[in-house]
Amino acid sequence: xxxxxxxxxxxxxxxxxxxxxxxxxxxxxxxxxxxxxxxxxxxxxxxxxxxxxxxxxxxxxxxxxxxxxxxxxxxxxxxxxxxxxxxxxxxxxxxxxxxxxxxxxxxxxxxxxxxxxxxxxxxxxxxxxxxxxxxxxxxxxxxxxxxxxxxxxxxxxxxxxxxxxxxxxxxxxxxxxx
Length: 178
Fold this sequence. Notes:
By secondary structure, this protein is of the alpha+beta class. Helix content is 41%, strand content 24%. It contains two helices and seven strands, in the order H-H-E-E-E-E-E-E-E. The chain is rod-shaped. It starts with a helix and ends with a strand.
């Protein structure tokens, strides 16, 4: 009787191992898909953060360049003409980059001009000023001279991989201290 009982038990359990293996594979697959989705999303958010940081530095650089031109204007003119660099151009929106050394020719902002990145110098600039790889960033430096105050807005625009539009807008005010 025990032999017959063992045979019946064996037949009842004959497909159970196959079902257990299939369930284990399914659970592992779902787990790995979850991890893959998490990694994919993490990489996408990393790119968004990198664009935000780069744009912030580029916007900050735009304000710093405008400040340098204001200082250059005051010291080089001899009579300390405050804000003369940014008046008389017919625009308040400029394309300034690290190569902008004086006020003789300040290019007007054109949204179709993307900043280039030079991997040798690690600097960003506009096509007339340098060679390099095109980026997704444009920088509009808005300068408004109002008596003893100069207001500078540096706005960096870009389009992300998913088509989302991004921008960083930094503002600073400079006062006539001369």
